[in-house]
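Page 37, continued from 36.
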């Protein structure tokens, strides 16, 4: 939904696009309203949905009406925006605000040596599970030590007579559904691109991941295959899924909407590694907003960027939708105000588990698939569904996992040849 805040003052107009959830959207609007008053300007805010944000931003720039600040819903989308020339570096903003003294290190990433994004809040992908059902069926309880334990739990929790399934397998053709197989691949020590910027998706690790996804599908209803992103969560609360997975933590709000009796029975855990010799890798989002490549008001836009990534700005966004995000800057978790909201009072232990997963295992894999090595091609390969396509071929087309791994590795090599050869 787009619209001008304030208005009619004849000052500069800043155009902002992001994909905030409703509660944070309302807080952004309040922040923008105050910024208008302070800076004698207008802020025109577009809240775009997840899938269309990149194309909306690209079309606006091509049409001569570019956005001044952009946050395109996911790391993959944001990286795509950099590659398409929608952003410009903001090294001065990052350095002026203290770089790693202000931001948590895992959120602050560079592309080709430049900072393009100023993070404020982020999300972490986790397994979500019904502790009450696990107890009822005496299944191995997350966090799982291995894929074998994950498989055993999914099998134990599948009771078709009761319309209960251990672990849904989502096969939609969007980048989000590629996160589970990618997380499993990373938890096996594999990757799409290695530290020499070579495509290694046709590895033994990829084949094992695809085999595991095929096996996991035995404990998934077919209806899950075509589920869109919003449809991934409700069946958990309605008793059809024993566990699922997601990114933004909306468990408190889902419980209120779908099954209020589940307070205290829905928990989070890392997507498991292959076995105890490997560590889970939890995919972080939260690259944050960046400066439009063709903004006519760069300094004013940078001031707004500083506002929404300041301590006060981040605190406002965190308390607008408590427990849903993890802070991308230091100090927020030590603030009493964060823990005094009603949601946090009910879900403090649950939220601390979420933060611990982000702290211990979190990485913005779209640009830092291999720790310490920046590689934006991974984000594009996920965003353009190469990963989930390989899983689709194995499960829906009964393709041999080795053949699928080799085929999609070749597709990645072909599609990103120019970038990989730079």
């Amino acid at each position: 939904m787009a619209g001008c805040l304030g208005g009619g003052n004849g000052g500069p107009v800043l155009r902002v696009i992001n994909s905030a959830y409703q509660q944070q959207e309302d807080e952004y609007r309040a922040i923008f309203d105050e910024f208008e008053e302070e800076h004698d300007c207008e802020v025109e805010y577009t809240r775009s949905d997840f899938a269309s944000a990149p194309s909306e931003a690209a079309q606006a720039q091509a049409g001569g009406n570019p956005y001044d600040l952009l946050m395109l819903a996911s790391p993959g989308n944001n990286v795509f925006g950099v590659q398409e020339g929608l952003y410009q570096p903001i090294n001065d903003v990052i350095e002026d605000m203290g770089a790693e003294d202000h931001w948590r290190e895992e959120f602050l990433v560079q592309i080709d040596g430049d900072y393009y994004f100023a993070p404020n809040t982020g999300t972490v992908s986790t397994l979500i599970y019904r502790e009450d059902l696990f107890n009822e069926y005496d299944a191995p309880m997350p966090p799982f030590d291995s894929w074998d334990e994950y498989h055993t739990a999914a099998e134990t929790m599948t009771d078709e007579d009761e319309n209960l399934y251990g672990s849904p397998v989502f096969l939609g053709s969007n980048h989000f559904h590629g996160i589970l197989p990618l997380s499993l691949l990373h938890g096996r020590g594999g990757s799409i691109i290695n530290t020499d910027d070579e495509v290694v998706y046709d590895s033994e690790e990829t084949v094992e991941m695809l085999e595991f996804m095929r096996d996991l599908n035995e404990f998934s209803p077919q209806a899950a295959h075509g589920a869109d992103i919003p449809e991934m969560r409700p069946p958990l609360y309605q008793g059809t899924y024993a566990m699922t997975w997601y990114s933004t933590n909306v468990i408190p709000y889902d419980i209120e909407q779908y099954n209020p009796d589940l307070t205290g029975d829905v928990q989070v855990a890392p997507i498991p590694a292959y076995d105890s010799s490997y560590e889970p890798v939890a995919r972080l989002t939260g690259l944050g907003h960046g400066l439009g490549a063709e903004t006519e008001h760069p300094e004013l836009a940078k001031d707004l960027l500083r506002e929404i990534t300041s301590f006060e700005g981040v605190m406002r966004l965190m308390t607008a939708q408590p427990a849903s995000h993890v802070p991308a800057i230091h100090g927020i978790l030590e603030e009493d105000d964060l823990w005094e909201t009603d949601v946090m009072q009910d879900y403090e232990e649950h939220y601390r588990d979420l933060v611990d997963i982000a702290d211990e295992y979190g990485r913005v894999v779209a640009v830092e698939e291999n720790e310490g090595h920046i590689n934006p091609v991974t984000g594009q390969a996920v965003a353009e569904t190469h990963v989930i396509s390989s899983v689709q071929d194995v499960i829906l087309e009964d393709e041999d996992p080795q053949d699928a791994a080799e085929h999609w590795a070749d597709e990645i090599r072909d599609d990103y040849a120019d970038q990989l050869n730079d």
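The chain has two domains: 2-122+285-350, 126-283+385-420. Flag for discussion at group meeting. Confidence is low (pLDDT under 50) at residues 1-8.
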